[in-house]
Amino acid sequence: MAQTVDLLITHASQLLTMEDDLGLIEDGALAIQNGKVVETGSSADLEKRYTGQETIDATGKTITPGLIDCHTHLLFAGSREDEFLSRLKGADYLSILQQGGGILNTVEQLRQATPDDLIQHGLKWLNEFLAHGVTCVEIKSGYGLDYANEKKMLEAISALSGYTDQHLVSTFLGAHAFPKEMKEQPEKQMDELVNHMLPAFRHLAEHCDLFLEKNAFSLDQAEVILERAQSFGYGLKMHTNQLSQLGGIALAKKYQLLSVDHLDTISEQEIETLAETDVVAVLLPGASFFLKESAWAPARQLIDKQIPVALATDFNPGSSPCPNLHFIMNLAVHQLGMLPHEVWQAVTITAAKALGKEDIAGSLATGKRADFVLWSMPNHLYPFYHFGKNFVEKVWINGRFAHRH
Fold this sequence. Notes:
This protein is α/β, with parallel strands linked by helices. The chain has 16 helices and 16 strands.
């Protein structure tokens, strides 16, 4: 006798489970019960053994796990298109920063925003992400830079979970930059970070991130933050090697980080070091594109060394104001030399690993969350060939159709 399940989808032209490479099943079927994946397989097989309270014929369409954007700065206030125009006219980042622009501009606007302002802003962009099949989004703080405003950001991220079906992962990025009032007092800001914010925000943030870069945090400061964050049980992440090489990869190995993000300037020796770890390399080509950088992350070298590679939008108001993960996927193929199957892995199962969620998300394996996308396309190569079009038809989260609010 056939087992009845909540949802049975059959006859997908291609079903990508992301188990063992793509886990591609032609004429694939998917059985869902209680928000979890029961089984995947051929339509001929699953139709014999399951009946669905709801059934969907996916003929001519493709099913994949829900996409995961594992690096965003989605929660901010205001915008900086005026600075973008200045850069087009030849101004560099440092000169804009010296005039009170750059991240300090966003910090000022964030501090003036109310919690409700941030929630409404966040919902607008989360809906955009959902329309592109993104079912899990990591959101960083980092535009408050003092206790009250970092707390305001983290509480807004927590509140957003009540307004969306998407899974949100909160990351504390208080070590994003030094606020202007602390520029001449780095020791005081470090004390505030490690002795006040980190212990106070553990219940609000799952991970701790920092920006290791010239004109940001030094290697010594980064180590202090990582050691302290580790003692509180945060998952550890780090922006590093975007513009310069300051020793971040060795630090990532020492503290067994979940991910190192950017890596546009990573050296061959650092790639060898990274290959000795399980740390995920999160590549953010949207920033290289928008900033017109000559250096792009060496995805091909990383993959050839069997380093797990994830992709993310880095959505933020300064260096990557792009909420479209599909565009990032296309950049990865056309600019980073990645192959389509590697890109699909990078925005599903490997992105889940970068967040420490690979056991519950990122693939359509039995027992995992039933987060998946039905695409109006016949195969997984289609969106790289027909770039610039959104082929997402429907999205399910926890086995339920995900409505956009």
